[in-house]
């Protein structure tokens, strides 16, 4: 167990050391203490795979090396990754399946998702071990897994919907250290106001919290001028800002402005909040006061929020960290599809009373990774975006403050992107998609059912062999 813990600790610690940037650069925490906090965090997470692979070690004496390398270890390793993805609200960053976005294993993403790919990659690793141990025939198993993945990539699970829309993704490159300072606020508001009004597009998007104030604090003519521009140019606008539900009750939100809607703008409030960054777990209020993070204790939005209609496309927004939870995005699409299908099958006298939801055709991520400086957090997040598009068969737009602002198509390929840390905009044309992948329908349950069955069989065989082991005198 200790070797597993050491390996996972080194892997996670070096992979997310950029978390320390937030604490010492923007949270006024000493650098040594910041690094210690990251070590404490990743060390705690490393206990999870250590426990799972400790269980695998108990199986080792009762199974052959083949069973151990190809069944026990891959199953328990992938289950450890899955557990890390939900325990204590989840931290599914650096899941090993993300390394295969552009490999033949990517073909499995629309079927069993990133955790299923983690499992398959671990089986291939087991085949390599057996190959080194002169069990050469298992190289055929690895080749078969890769070949099936390549064939799965030929299947088009989703199909184009409607006409492509033109999109302008704004990248303000505003330093996080000055973003919430009152003397720099006017500059931020002016930049995004002028950038939006610069020219029309079907959809114009700002990054997360591009307007770093509650909507009621904006200048009185700010939103009306944007509405006037939207109406005159037939443009749709997605603004990243904060909304208020009452005194000291704020949400990290997307406001959608449509050409025909003068009041009650579209609103999406972030649901999956970041612990210690957007909400404070009970007993840790001292950490919140020590860190001095603006808007660090927010309210949650509803989970099944409707998409934002832009012409004949339906845009499903997610904010920053939310796109690391693939099962949640899949569940939102399936929920909308199910309600839409149920409504269509209702009698006409009930259909008017039913609540139908449009099915999302394009994903939109609005994020602000400037918290983490010029680190590998940015390419890691793009890699995560690629996996979400593969799982859902839908493209994703990313509008970010400092990078990486990009368009990833429904096949998981980066179509266009801006260089990080520049003030610019990315103009793209994006095609929406309709239809369902198996992952949208089943989420992680298809893969989890198989893993649960394997673990149950392993435990039964282990118990049976242990029970009948001869007792030596």
Write the layout of secondary structure elements.
Layout (H helix, E strand, L loop, with lengths): L1 H14 L3 H8 L4 H15 L1 H14 L4 H20 L24 H24 L6 H14 L6 E13 L4 H4 L2 H16 L5 E3 L5 E4 L7 H12 L2 E11 L2 E9 L8 E4 L15 H7 L16 E3 L2 E7 L6 H19 L3 H4 L10 E6 L9 H16 L3 E5 L5 E3 L5 E4 L6 E11 L3 H5 L2 H23 L6
Parallel strand pairs: 1-2, 2-4, 3-4, 8-9, 9-10
Antiparallel strand pairs: 1-13, 4-5, 5-6, 7-8, 10-11, 11-12
Describe what this molecule looks like in 3D.
The structure is a single chain. This protein is α/β, with parallel strands linked by helices. The chain folds into two domains: 46-155 and 443-467, no CATH class; 159-440, Nitrilase/N-carbamoyl-D-aminoacid amidohydrolase (4-Layer Sandwich). The chain contains 16 helices and 13 strands. Strands 1, 2, 3, 4, 5, 6 and 13 form a seven-stranded mixed sheet that branches. The chain has a six-stranded mixed sheet with strand order 7-8-9-10-11-12, covered by helices on one side. The radius of gyration is 24 Å and the shape is globular. Residues 350-355 have low confidence and may be disordered.
What fraction of residues sit in β-strands? 15-25%
Q: Can you identify the CATH class of the largest domain?
A: Alpha Beta
Parts with pLDDT < 50 across at least 5 consecutive residues: 350-355
SSE order: HHHHHHHEHHEEHEEEHEEHHEHEEEEHH
- The third-level CATH topology of the largest domain is Nitrilase/N-carbamoyl-D-aminoacid amidohydrolase
Query: Helicity, in percent?
Result: 40-55%
Per DSSP E runs of 2 or more residues, the count of β-strands stands at: 13
Give the CA-based shape: globular
Mean of the pLDDT scores? 90
